[in-house]
Every structure is written in structure tokens, then in C-alpha cells.
DNA sequence: TAGATTGTTAATCGATTAACAATC
DNA sequence: TAGATTGTTAATCGATTAACAATC
């Protein structure tokens, strides 16, 4: 990683967290080494792809041996930026925002993400505490972001408010948006957006269900 | 749609819901026709890609005119299976499951998805109502699925329980899983899984944030 | 009709897989 | 050492973009 990681394809980046998850599971089973071949069988990808992917970032393996699980786990964590402090805020303290604040899969020390505040306009929500995290008035957001040097914001607010608020957040220093609003955000190039478009993912599911049904009908 | 849609690439399928969203927005603005060129500018993709994608499913356009917005919206809806009844259950009535039950983006009549039951093992949750939907005992799930002919299940339960329960659900007739558990499900080919791996999507976000920082440091 | 824009074929680009020499 | 497995180059495959004849 560091300053020379150029032109890594998005396809590779998207696979890294999955490698990280499998390596974490191997580690938990006290498995200390693994070859690309064995990992490929567990993950149902080609060994070639694993080696190609990893070699974008460095030679983590050893000929005749394979990869050291613990080492590779740590290295991929570093590549993903999980060794850095990743404090985040959640903008929109409705059901989804609150669910994310409670979500244990990432909101724990082991992978370094920490939700430190929720924000909302609704006076009924302001002041309540969700999983030990307070809901603040959205008007206090600028000061909070600047004081705490927050770089990551989850957007769990209505579609019509998201673009305007995202623009403000970017101007206050937010560098990465985890966007749950069903809208495409247009922001400066220095800012990253990761979309989680739930309705859209559900639609691809129904497509697949129905197209499979049709294929079965025709005996394919 | 229909039985002859063969070998459509997943890349194309993933783009369909986004077309659908843009067409819905155009419709709401009372725009009745659009060319692939104009749509491409709005969506920031190439016009060529739009035409290629749509022509996998049929010639919806007209030379010299473009596409009729309303018609194309309806057709893509059909392709995605949104014209069919899409009743679903949510397995796991924790924070995330409850948030999904409340989620208005898809859980409304306009796109045909309907959450009709939540299930959980926790006696404290069983019997409560979330957004008008009751939390049932997970032991009643088999009967419920069979009686209501449910085809879609959202899995919002702990990682260690997901694979076993998914297998049971598949044996009871579930054809599509919307999987929020951070684990890969191994299921028969007749079953579709759409993964929403939140922790993993957050990791790709941090990768992008940090790699962009690095590039700025070196003035690239 | 003339102009616009599609549907579709061909060219390019990028990503995946295969192969194998290097080497632990 | 001999066997195993990587790192990396070359071959293949698939997806995207460009071009243009067809046609509304």
C-alpha cells in the first residue's frame, strides 16, 4: 500500500474484504499457513486469482510454503486501512441509522470502526442514546466534525435530503460517504462514495429468482 | 422475463435497477421520451452501454425518437420481476431486521415488495409488532412459508446461525435469500443469494479514503 | 424528405485464467 | 535434494466502447 499503490482495479479491491474474512476465520481455527490452492477451494475462486490479487500489493507468500495466515491477515487489514482509527458518524437516526449504530459486525474494536455520534433533525430523537451513542442536533454537525476530525459519514436519511447534506459534509471535511440513500451523490474527486442501495440489491434478487423459475419451466 | 432470456451477464443485471430508478425520476418529472445519449449524460455512463444493455431484452426504442419513458420503466420493472407479487419474510428480528421491516424504499406497493412476517427465537420479541408486521416464533416458520408460499427471505441473524437456517429455509421452498449475515451460504443451484455484506462494503470505503489520501500526499 | 437515433457488428479494453520458470 | 508453491508472463475470455447501416 502507501503512496505507490497505483491503478489497482476496483474488482480487486472489492475482493479484499472477503479474503480478510476468510483469513480471520482460519486464524480463529488456529490454522497458521495456507496455500493459494487450498484457499481457492474454500473460497470457490481460482488460485490464480488469489495470487494475482495479492501480488498487486506485494509478495506475501513464500514458494513451496504458501502464505502465513496471521501475517496475511494483518497485511490485508493494513491495505484496507483497518489499522488506522476509523471513527464515523451516522447522519439520520431513523430505523436504519439506529440499526447501524447497534451493528456489531463492524462497530467494535477488532476492525477499528467506531460510531461516535448520530445526527438528526427530529427533536424527539435528539438527546436519546443508541447503543451508548448520543443523537445530536444536525445543526451541531459542522462543529462536531471539525472538532473530532471525522472522515467517514454514513448517510441514512431521506433521498431528497441526501445530496444537499452530503455536499455540506464534504465541505466540512468528510472524505468517505457510506450512502444508504437511493440517490447518486455528486461530490468532489477527493471524496469517496460507497453506495449501499438496498432496494436495488433486492431487485437483482427478484430478477434472479424469476429468471431461474423460467429456466426450470423449460427444463434448462 | 419469459423463458428465453439466456446468459445475460450479471454486470447487466446489476445495472437494471439503476436504470429503473432514473426512469422513475424522469416519469415523476413528466418527461415522456429520452434518448440513450441524454440518459447517458444524466447517469454518467456511455450511450452505447445503455443501448447494449437494453437490447439484451428487446428493442424498446425507436430510431430517430429514442425511448418512451413510461414504457421503458414498465418493461424494466417486468424484467426485474416487480410486476409479480414479492412477499417476503425477515428472519432475525434484531435491529437490522426491524429496520428493514420499516424501510420504506422498497417495502411499499409501488415496487411490489411486502414484508409479511418477522421471525426470531427471542421470547421477548415474539408477538411484538413492527410497522404493522408481527414477530413470530421461528418454530412456526416452516408452516408459515408453506401456507403463504413465500419465496424470499431476508437473513438478518447472527453469522453462526445463518448457514443452517438458510438450508432449512431452502428445503421449505425459499428461492431467494437476501443475506445480511457475514458468511457465504452454500445452497442448491435452484436458489439465489444476494449478499449485503455491510462490514465489507465499509472496508472498501476505508481503502479508498486512505489510498486517496496517499495519492494526494505525493501530489498525484 | 432530412435529421435523429436506434440496434447491432466490430474494435478495444480490461479482467481472469493458465502456464511455468524461479525459488523456498 | 526433491517437492511444493509462489510470482509473473502469456493466453483467453468477457465486457465496454466505437462505429455505422438501418429506419423511424
UniProtKB/TrEMBL annotation, chains A, B:
Keywords: Cytoplasm, DNA-binding, NAD, Repressor, Transcription, Transcription regulation. It holds the Pfam family CoA_binding. GO terms for molecular function: DNA binding; DNA-binding transcription factor activity. InterPro entries: CoA-bd, NAD(P)-bd_dom_sf, Rex_DNA-bd_C_dom, Tscrpt_rep_Rex, WH-like_DNA-bd_sf, WH_DNA-bd_sf. The keyword Transcription regulation applies. One of its GO terms (cellular component) is cytoplasm. It comes from the Bacteria. Residues 18-57 bind DNA. The keyword Transmembrane helix does not apply. Homodimer. NCBIfam families: PRK05472.1-3 (NF003989), PRK05472.1-4 (NF003990), PRK05472.2-3 (NF003994), PRK05472.2-4 (NF003995), PRK05472.2-5 (NF003996). PANTHER family: REDOX-SENSING TRANSCRIPTIONAL REPRESSOR REX, REDOX-SENSING TRANSCRIPTIONAL REPRESSOR REX 1. Belongs to the transcriptional regulatory Rex family. Modulates transcription in response to changes in cellular NADH/NAD(+) redox state. This is Redox-sensing transcriptional repressor Rex. It comes from Anaerostipes rhamnosivorans.
